[in-house]
Each structure stands twice: as C-alpha cells, then as structure tokens.
Amino acid sequence: MAMGQRRLGSRRQSQSVVVLLLATAWCAAAQLSQNYYVSTCPNVETLVRGAVAQKLKETFNAAPGTLRLFFHDCFVRGCDASVLIAGPDDEHSAGADTTLSPDALDLITRAKAAVDADAQCANKVSCADILALAARDVVSQAGGPYYQVELGRLDGKVGTRAVVKHSLPGAAFDLDQLNKLFAANGLTQTDMIALSGGHTIGVTHCDKFVRRLYQFKGAAPPPNSPAMNLAFLRQMRQTCPLSYSPTTVAMLDAVTPNKFDNGYFQTLQQLKGLLASDQVLFADRRSRSTVNYFAANQTAFFDAFVAAITKLGRVGVKTAGSGSDAEIRRVCTKVN
C-alpha cells in the first residue's frame, strides 16, 4: 500500500473512532430525562432542595463549592460523581485541588442521606444525579435561574486523583486554551463564557493569581497576562501580601459575592477579574462582545448559563446501559 493510502486509511480510522465515541456519548445522554424518577422517587427534587436550603442557612460557602464540584466532576471523568470518591486515608480523590469545598461535600452527603431516608427512594437515586440537582438548587437559591435537570446518571467506580490536574482549566489559560478544553467536552465558546459566569459567587486562593500582583525576582510574569485595574491591584496586594497564607482567599466578584447575577461580567469590564483566565474573556476581542452582552443583559446570561450547564450535565454520563462500570452508590464517597 502506498504511503498516502496508509495515511488516508489511518485518518479515516481515527475519524471513525471519534464518530463512534460521539455517538456513544449521545446515546448515553439521550437516556437522561427530566422525569426519570417520577415513579421510583417522585420527591427527589424536594428532598435535595430541602437539604440544600438547610446547608446554605449554615454557610453560603456551600453554594459556590457545590457548583464547582459539579463542574469538576463532569470535566474530569464525566458526570458520574467520581470526584466524590475518597482516596487513601479518606482523602478525596481530587484532594490535590485544595479549593474543593468541604462544605459542598457535606451538602451532598446530607442530600444523599435525606433521599435515602425516604423509604420509596432508598438506594434508587445516584450520587451523580443528586450532585446535578444540588448544583441547580444552589444557583437558584443564590438568586440565579431555576431550570429543569435531566436525570438518569449512574455513579462511576473510578476516582479522579490521577487525572484531575490535566482535565481542568488553568488559572492562567488564554482564550485558545479555554476553547480547546471546553470544545473537547462538546461546549462552545459561548458555553464556556456563560459557565465562567458561575464565578459570580465564590472565592479563589491567592496562589491562583498572586503572579499577577507582583514581579517576582528571577521569574517572568505570566505571558500575555491581561491588564488589571490599578486601584484593584493595590487592594489585592493588601489581601494577598507576599507573605500570604495558603488559606487566604479573595472574592471572585467582590461587589455581589453572595448573589448569582451578571456582576462577574461587569467586573471584567472594569479590569477587576482576579484570574487571568477570567480577565482574558474581556481582554481578547474574540470573546469581549459576549462579555459585554452578558454584562448588560442578565436574562441573556441566565439563558446561556442554563443551556451550557444542561450540556455540561451530559458529558461522559453513565446510564443503565453502561454495565458493570456503573452503579448507584450507597455511600457517595465509596464504591459499593
């Protein structure tokens, strides 16, 4: 066979594999439905919503933490609650990422207990679906949109520790890097910008943006780092001095940190985005118009966010046809 024919055959084979993988993912997602538990656990949404409300009364930290937990879960191994599986010595499998919220993990544990305490629902609802519902409820209860959640996921059996760092956006990612990672999960640039709007609630640690604040001796500044408002820069240097504590955090949206709104996009317009990967959305002309649109129109942002998080919730799902690779966990942090 000629070299050109071998290359063409190899290319066609690769394309066939991609098509097969996409078809498999579509078939799994097609088995999700909004009324999946209508006969087996009709009260599941009420039970999860109640657990979320109770936890948020105790601490708002659980809201951004739960939303982030759902995002991490879907991006790392698909939306199968694998991010919840505990590693050695009960350390969570994604424990290398210290920003995963203990309050969010506790919220999911409580929600699972509330669901299983209902005799009709016991051991019939997956941790993956509980996490998806809880993510919707923290958004809604923080003032964001309420939307219908597709259900029917099963839980995975493999933890995420080995792959978590390579599956998530970096704090210094540029627009091309962000688009490439999101596109690999079937998400568009608009989806990526809308999901980034989830940073309208929550915090980030100093180590994620400190290189934007100081010129370190012997270390080059981040390449193409977006500009920062000078007054904001000085303020952040007070929050994160050179001798900052590893536990010190700053609000991603300092204006309305406990409200799910479009304030995040307005901070980007003011050059007050903490993470380079956030501020680049306004700095890059290819994405700036979408930032401006969402900053001026909260309804448009909410609509785009609902569309994007619905698509996110279909990534890598395991359903009834997944065989022995999936289950409904009795305890969310351990495989059965």
UniProtKB/TrEMBL annotation:
Superkingdom per UniProt: Eukaryota
Keyword presence, Plastid: no
Residues engaged in binding substrate: P169
Binding site for Ca(2+) 2: T200, D253, T256, D261
Listed GO MF terms: heme binding; lactoperoxidase activity; metal ion binding
Record-level GO BP terms: hydrogen peroxide catabolic process; response to oxidative stress
Cofactor: heme b; Ca(2+)
The keyword NAD is annotated on this UniProt entry: no
SUPFAM superfamilies: Heme-dependent peroxidases
Keywords assigned by UniProt, alphabetized: Calcium, Disulfide bond, Heme, Hydrogen peroxide, Iron, Metal-binding, Oxidoreductase, Peroxidase, Pyrrolidone carboxylic acid, Secreted, Signal
UniProt-listed PROSITE patterns: PEROXIDASE_1 (PS00435), PEROXIDASE_2 (PS00436), PEROXIDASE_4 (PS50873)
Annotated CDD domains: secretory_peroxidase (cd00693)
Residue ranges constituting the Plant heme peroxidase family profile domain according to the UniProt record: 31-336
Top EC class, one word: oxidoreductase
Binding site for Ca(2+) 1: D73, V76, G78, D80, S82, E91
Residues of the site described as Transition state stabilizer: R68
Parts forming coiled coils: none
Active site: H72
Protein family according to the UniProt entry: Belongs to the peroxidase family. Ascorbate peroxidase subfamily. Belongs to the peroxidase family. Classical plant (class III) peroxidase subfamily.
Protein name: Peroxidase
Organism: Oryza brachyantha (malo sina)
Gene name tied to this protein: LOC102700719
